[in-house]
Amino acid sequence: MNADGRTRLNQTPEWTSLAKHREELGEVRLRELFAADSGRGAGYTLQVGDLHVDYSKHLITDETLRLLRELAAATDVFGLRDAMFRGEKINTTEDRAVLHTALRAARDAVVEVDGENVVPAVHTVLDKMSAFAEKVRSGEWRGHTGRRIRTVVNIGIGGSDLGPAMAYEALRSFTDRELAVRFVSNVDGADLHEAVRDLDAAETLFIIASKTFTTIETITNATSARDWLLAELKAGPDAVAAHFVALSTNAEKVADFGIDTANMFAFWDWVGGRYSFDSAIGLSLMIAIGPDRFREMLEGFRIVDEHFRTAPAESNAPLLMGLLGVWYGNFFDAQSHAVLPYSHYLSRFTAYLQQLDMESNGKSTGRDGHPVDWQTGPVVWGTPGTNGQHAYYQLIHQGTKLIPADFIGFAEPVEDLLPGLVSQHDLLMANFFAQTQALAFGKTPDEVRAEGVPEELVPHKTFMGNHPTTTILARELTPSVLGQLIALYEHKVFVQGAIWNIDSFDQWGVELGKVLAKRVEPALTEGAEVAGLDESTRALVAKYRELRGR
Ligand code: F6P
């Protein structure tokens, strides 16, 4: 404890031991670690549900893992975890419980918030969503002119967009291919324009997804979508009911917008936006894949929830992944973390994780209100692996930065892949395995020379290796496996926030930009004198107006 009565994370004995251990490890080489332990590849693995997690290619020893677990114990990660599952208000700056885990709780489970079991309400909404999804899928739900729905357009942003958009791509092969789902998020009118320009309004259903129902991008797009629909149908406001539904916690605002609250699917303030995908926010996905598949996905989430809640520290996958991130971020100064899926269907997965991780742990104030003086959340980035190989992998292999990476791959291609394309899967996965090997073990100058490479090119063709990766392998990308993957990352992010002593469930950092945008807009449109504009921004606004001929 310091003179000011605070215990700082980076002055705890557990942290200091890790820093000392890091020094002792020095330039530890993965080649040496594997040479010293022939069972390392098989030993440093975990199984959680259908996910096989291999963490052998990390710059760690048994001692590292022991010390990291001690840090987790000292920061009471499991204590905070239990408080979260119990429904305690661990989101202290917003005074809210954090209960996305209740969204996938079994029907007979009991999870209380302020003394009330929230699980029955969760299942009431799921049942209402299921009935609605079936009506749309079967064609029973009709548009204003009596035609069935062929396209669903989800309008939302952040957590009200990224989850369903990612999962719709991920589970394409499970979707009803006769029913298209599109996603509009950007307030740039181009987004909505491209989404609706070739649609028949009579066959289009808009889902307005917004937890608060006040988000300017979403409400603006929703209003424009309503105008478009009514103009296309040459109809009055009574046409809205058959073409607009809302997903929100804010019934009053939904009604103000003109959507019948009978067509609203609710969720609750104990669900954070970026944790809301398995709430009503998933309605577009449920329409696409059907309620049964959606419930399979929820079961996948639940498998990992149970694992995180009950597995001991030694075999707890989210704990381990969180600790590895702490190890590199805080003791190797790694600034970023790459997530590289070897599945085209996971093309939006990393974008989804960006919000999950960076909006949760991009914080510099501790839960105690004091600045933290240790690194917190990493920059999360990445795209499907093989494409990345021909773009930015050069930097991972031979650049100057340490970039820990997660490789996610599947043994089987999706079931409905054209038979002629199935053989490509082995080629895809050969790349998957080859890359983690190359990253870990590289190619020494002697190995390069042995290939007859001229001496002046040897340094250029040498691969230093020692780039740490986690490999996550599953048999197939199913709804359940997707749920498992998402829950794995949700809980990993939780672990890191707990250790760094930050509130992973607020997002005050997005507010200032919103306020300033509101303030600047009249300067753009009317040339209004806006108080508080700095000199640079004032000049840029003037230039913008000039370019727009205003
Ligand atoms: O501005 C950030 C944010 O609040 C996210 O946390 C959230 O997911 C997104 O905006 C959308 O919010 P809403 O669902 O309330 O429209």
UniProtKB/TrEMBL annotation:
Major location category of this protein: cytoplasm
Catalytic activity: alpha-D-glucose 6-phosphate = beta-D-fructose 6-phosphate
GO biological process: gluconeogenesis; glucose 6-phosphate metabolic process; glycolytic process
GO molecular function, one term: glucose-6-phosphate isomerase activity
Keywords in alphabetical order: Cytoplasm, Gluconeogenesis, Glycolysis, Isomerase
Residues of the active site: 359 (proton donor), 390, 514
Subcellular location: Cytoplasm
Pathway listed: Carbohydrate degradation; glycolysis; D-glyceraldehyde 3-phosphate and glycerone phosphate from D-glucose: step 2/4; Carbohydrate biosynthesis; gluconeogenesis
Enzyme Commission number(s): 5.3.1.9
Family of this protein: Belongs to the GPI family.
NCBIfam families (alphabetical): PRK00179.1
Functional summary from the UniProt entry: Catalyzes the reversible isomerization of glucose-6-phosphate to fructose-6-phosphate.
Protein name: Glucose-6-phosphate isomerase
Species: Streptomyces montanus
Taxonomic lineage: Bacteria, Bacillati, Actinomycetota, Actinomycetes, Kitasatosporales
